[in-house]
Automatic annotation (TrEMBL):
Transmembrane region(s): 74-99, 130-152, 172-192, 199-221, 241-262, 293-316, 354-375, 387-406, 418-436, 443-464, 470-490
Record carries keyword Membrane: yes
Organism: Streptomyces tuirus
Keywords: Membrane, Transmembrane, Transmembrane helix
Record has Membrane as a keyword: yes
Name assigned to this protein: Amino acid transporter
Signal peptide: none
Amino acid sequence: MATTEHPAPGRPQSTPRDRLRAWLLEGLSDMGKRGGHTGPHARPEPPHRGQRWWRVMCLTGVDYFSTLGYQPGIAALAAGLLSPIATIVLVVVTLAGALPVYRRVAEESPHGEGSIAMLERLLSFWKGKLFVLTLLGFAATDFLITITLSAADASTHLVENPHLTDALHNKQMLITLVLVALLGAVFLKGFLEAIGVAVALVSAYLALNAVVVVAGLYHVITAGHVITDWSSALTTEHSNVFAMIGVALLVFPKLALGLSGFETGVAVMPHVQGDPDDTEARPTGRIRDTKKLLTTAALIMSVFLITTSFITTLLIPEKDFEAGGQANGRALAYLAHEYLGNTFGTVYDVSTIAILWFAGASAMAGLLNLMPRYLPRYGMAPHWARAVRPMVIVFTLIAFLVTWIFDADVDAQGGAYATGVLVLISSAAIAVTIAARKARQRNWTIAFAVISAVFLYTTVLNVIERPDGVKIGACFIAGIILVSLLSRLARAFELRVTSVTLDDMAERFVRDMANRRIRFIANEPDQRDVAEYRDKIEQIRHDNDLSGREDFVFAEVTVTDPSEFETSLTVRGEVLHGRYRVLTLESSSIPNALAALLLHVRDETGRIPHIYFEWTEGSPFANFLRFFLFGQGEVAPVTREVLREAEPDRRRRPRVHVG
């Protein structure tokens, strides 16, 4: 007799849709957990097997050093002949402001959380969550504009290459979108962090830039009239040195792109090797080496910023910096082709395109690390946001939109990029000021307060002059807050308790109840006197028609921080007035805590527990809002709904009674 093959029992045949869903949500259970790995760049090196600090510096450098691709041109457009002086102001602010701030951030947040985590610890309840969401909006602006601006500048180097300019003329938008799409495709396939690749890219790029700088300085020195012409023009435009410095200070906010990379520097701290005796609680060697990383990167970048702004200002005609000019967005590449030939220039273009693309990859990884670190823990992200691939698709589509809005223009995106960078640095400066004040370090408190004032002034001035950045940031903030609140609303009835721990007395109560029917009374503690518990038992017996022989244990929940989503639950038992057994719980939500307690007791005893409530007076809608915002309100029906979602089998579900 012929037989027909059937799928094995319990293993239904998967459809293409199921396989696609499984591929998209791969790793979902591991994402967004406290202390878990949340992105392709999040997995730290095994203990004591990290990388030397200078190698990790190259990972930071693909973001930081790659700004040399466009920074000199932006500085020349913003400051004109004063570009070298304005760049010196930028370097002073970098070394005397941003560097000390982030060296302190490395001390205060040695596990890569950065300044946002420092501020999160200082603020609680909903104001803390909203503040963090606002900073996440600006961080998203920073990272996304890094992707789009880097891709746009890479396409500029490609289009303006003498060998390709005819073939690729007017194709910059298309090339930029292709580069962004390629970046997204790589992350969809699975992007493994390769510090070795970063080391190779950064080493080659800095070496080529050093050659261009030396060649540029040689031409400046040998053509003596260049310096004379520049100084004469400066004197004509500005009457004295103080006027020059004043104008340089005014245009400094437009050069703030040169400050990027510090937040990435502390984000990569978990990869720094440190000392063999480092522990997670006291990573002394890691902190020391991260400070070396930050300082060395800042010094290298400072030297290149000053020298490149000097040679590009003196050797490139002013009109070539403007939109459509040969040096627009590629000033150093212009000099490479002009003074070292098209062959060297093409090698320089390839190196620049590679490091700019890798800077976009670093920014994408930063987004994938940052968002799951906070939003799932707040309950403010859909389930699929914990997986990498759906978020890659979302960020890639947003990058397409930003590229289209700014027409793949490097100069147009500078304001938005600078705003994101400055807001993050300002928040870091404020965080370390507060940390120094709490540590009673008076001198450091004053110093960091002054630095904070400088960065806040720079941020405000940048926003006033170039509001695009704050508009983009506001869009991200509004989007994040809206999606967060909708996600929190949709997940309101989830069982949010990650673990339940009972003390010895509570364990005794549960063991004693396991021999008979388990009955809890949900009680909102008031005076906690004899009358309160006596009257409550009488009311529950009367409302539910229970006999006087039934035994009860009270369950009382105190709401701590209702803005928290996932929390652990500690249950303490006590006997009040010599006869009433009471379990006390602290949680962010009364219904979730009670539901978690009931399920834990069921699993420990193998018996179905019962819990008794009284109806809450007032509007159901108002009571639901109280639950959503403050963790209390209409407790009985919400507890039942949480139990229904957590336990689909009605036979195993704890019983909820309301009188």
